[in-house]
Amino acid sequence: MEDCIFCKIIRGEIPAFKVYEDEAVFAFADINPISQGHTLVIPKRHAENLWEIPEKDLCSVLSAAKRIAGAMKKALNPAGIACLQLNGRGVNQVVMHYHLHLMPRLEGTPELPVTTWELKPGDMDEIKKTAEKISAALP
Ligand code: 5GP
Ligand code: ZN
């Protein structure tokens, strides 16, 4: 896509610190890292989000993510790695090219804000109804 910032990174028009590349996937360091090693894994073919990405590209992204997570484990020995992927401006997706965040948390560093939400028991009736509603809408 012409004016997509991540497509420009893939084409080499904007510099990036590349972590991984194959025929379908590109991965690079996030320039506003939430933690040391924060990496974005993206499909080379432009797709905005989880609804639009072809399954084949999604599988390629996840395979690459698994390899990169393995490399992070070896290189950084993190306490854990959070994977996050936002879909839509309503949940603060900023760059409208599918990207999976890999965010390692190193030993002795603060907890990642995206992993620290409070667990509050929900309304079981509402939970059941909503689960059924989603299930009934499956293709
Ligand atoms: P989102 O909120 O859309 O999931 O996150 C977009 C991410 O892309 C942010 O973490 C942001 O730091 C990162 N980002 C935005 N522009 C650039 C850029 O030009 N280069 C790199 N490496 N990361 C970017
Ligand atoms: Zn793009």
| CATH superfamily membership | HIT-like
Number of domains: 1
Question: Which strand-content bin applies to the residues?
Answer: 15-25%
Hetero ligands: guanosine-5'-monophosphate, zinc ion
Helical amount among residues, as a percent range? 25-40%
CATH class, named: Alpha Beta
Residue-averaged pLDDT:
98
Count of distinct strands: 5
**Could you give the distance between the termini?**
29 Å
Order of helices and strands: HEEEHEEH
What topology does this entry show?
Blueprint lengths: L4 H6 L7 E4 L3 E5 L9 E5 L11 H22 L3 E5 L15 E6 L18 H13 L3
Antiparallel strand pairs: 1-2, 2-3, 3-5, 4-5
The protein binds guanosine-5'-monophosphate (5GP) and zinc ion.
In words, what does this structure look like?
With 139 residues, the protein is of the alpha+beta class. The protein has a single domain, classed as HIT-like (HIT family, subunit A, 2-Layer Sandwich), CATH 3.30.428.10. It has 3 helices and 5 strands; from the N terminus they run H-E-E-E-H-E-E-H. The chain has a 5-stranded antiparallel β-sheet with strand order 1-2-3-5-4, covered by helices on one side. A hairpin with a 3-residue loop joins strand 1 (18-21) and strand 2. The chain is globular and about 50 Å long. Guanosine-5'-monophosphate is lined by residues 5, 14, 16, 28-32, 86, 92-95.
